[in-house]
Specification:
This protein has 430 residues and is mainly α. Helices cover 49% and strands 10% of the residues. Strands 7-8-9 form a three-stranded antiparallel beta sheet. The protein has a two-stranded antiparallel ribbon with strand order 1-2. The chain has a two-stranded antiparallel ribbon with strand order 3-6. The relative contact order is 0.14.
């Protein structure tokens, strides 16, 4: 009997051990499955992808410094400059093209630049060489300005208003014979509007941001600012020679500020926009506030004119079908091939700039002009790379290096001496 009881007890223990073993096995299996499902490397990759997709937002103080050099521009000039800054390669190409066509004036200049395959906002800057110079003096700043405008359009427009208020409160932004400054209510928003005093003539304001706004939190861009002697007595802002709009902008200025929605609007009757943006907005930009009879529509960035310049972050790059800073050369080449494959039939390109739908309707250029365009594009790309176009205009402390500031100052000083201290194309101060 005792022997039977021992065997029975042994069986029970064995059964318990088996059950315990099975339970442990199941627990270990579940844990392993859980480990596989939550592989830390996989989670890290997901987190990295999520962070990569996020748009890099600049704080208000940094945006204020970024827009400081152009915040006091008249609204139409400000809007066009913001739009053009999103195409930094084409701005450099325009600057090089202008240097080779100094004799072109007024209507001849307008007709010649219209044959180039650049975005209309860049083409129309040909009549504002002072603005082109400021944009190309520090192409890193221009690139960062354009990137910020693409990623934070509303915040950039708010920054302009903050800087205008600072200048106005210090008595440095006011109505003069060159401009009209008014405080208006636009769709329940109080904004400072700057317009040219004469609708047919525009003056490019020149000013030192530190004098006009006060000391910055982030250092102002180190582009060239005219010396104190350039300004009229007692004036913090001075102006170059007036530019007659009619010769360059048939149909009115092409860009304006939509302060109600913090956006840029385009005038579809403008000669540079008429045959370009009307078709693009109607056929491509489905979100545009546009109809066939509308004079104005909302501006939208055209990535076909980006010329391969990387966007600030992956989210913006994905939005416009481009590449982001930090992507490998292979990724950029693959993206370029994809853009080429998606191009409308009949469109043509120049090296460094992709032509938009409007190119097919333009007269064909000579082989020499095409070769010249290729050379200009290559040189422009080299200029962007040598200036550090892929790095932020702001350093680790939000400022610029001393060498960058000196280089920018020397370039501008030399240019101003060559012009006699006045505006571009023989202009003087007023």
């Amino acid at each position: 009997m005792d022997n039977m009881n021992c065997r029975f007890s042994s069986c029970i223990r064995t059964s318990r051990e088996i059950v315990a073993f099975l339970c442990i096995t199941l627990l270990v299996s579940d844990s392993a499955l859980g480990f596989v499902a939550q592989d830390p490397h996989s989670q890290e990759q997901k987190n990295a992808n999520s962070a990569d997709q996020a748009t890099a937002k600049l704080p208000e103080d940094q945006l204020d410094s970024l827009v400081a050099p152009i915040a006091l521009y008249p609204d139409p000039m400000l809007a066009q400059t913001l739009a053009a800054s999103t195409y930094p390669l084409e701005v450099v190409q325009l600057q090089q093209w202008l240097a080779k066509h100094l004799k072109l004036k007024d209507k001849e200049l307008s007709e010649a630049v219209a044959k180039q395959s650049w975005d209309p906002s860049v083409q129309a800057l040909a009549g504002l060489p002072e603005v082109v110079k400021r944009l190309t003096d520090d192409i890193k700043w221009t690139t960062d300005l354009g990137n910020a405008f693409l990623a934070q359009q509303s915040e950039v427009m708010d920054a302009v208003q903050r800087m205008r208020k600072k200048a106005k409160d210090k008595g440095n932004l006011k109505t003069s014979e060159q401009q009209k400054v008014e405080t208006k209510t636009v769709e329940n928003k109080t904004v400072i509007v700057v317009e040219q005093a004469n609708p047919d003539v525009v003056y490019v304001p020149a000013y030192n941001p530190t004098v006009v706004y006060g000391a910055p939190v982030y250092a102002y861009p180190a582009i060239y600012y005219p010396p104190p002697g350039y300004y009229a007595a007692g004036m913090a802002v001075s102006f170059g020679v007036g530019v007659a709009m009619g010769a360059m902008w048939s149909g009115g200025w092409g860009w304006g500020c939509g302060w109600g929605h913090n956006n840029v609007q385009i005038n579809n009757y403008n000669n540079f926009n008429r045959n370009v943006n009307v078709n693009r907005n109607a056929n491509v930009n489905r979100n545009a506030n546009f109809n066939g009879n509308a004079r104005t529509s909302n501006w939208s960035h055209n990535p076909q004119h980006r010329g391969g310049t990387p966007y600030q972050d992956r989210a913006t790059a994905n939005q416009y079908g481009g590449t982001a800073r930090g992507q490998s050369a292979a990724d950029r080449q693959a993206n370029a091939r994809q853009q080429i494959s998606q191009r409308p039939a009949g469109s043509t390109t120049t090296r460094g700039a992709t032509a938009g739908p409007e190119t097919a309707s333009r007269p064909s250029q000579s082989k020499s002009s095409s070769a010249q365009g290729k050379s200009s594009s290559a040189a422009a790309r080299d200029s962007l790379q040598s200036s550090g176009g892929d790095s932020s205009a702001f350093g680790s402390r939000g400022g610029y290096s001393d060498s960058s500031a000196r280089a920018a100052g020397n370039r501008g000083s030399s240019s101003m001496r060559g012009r006699g201290g006045g505006g571009a194309r023989g202009g003087g101060r007023r």
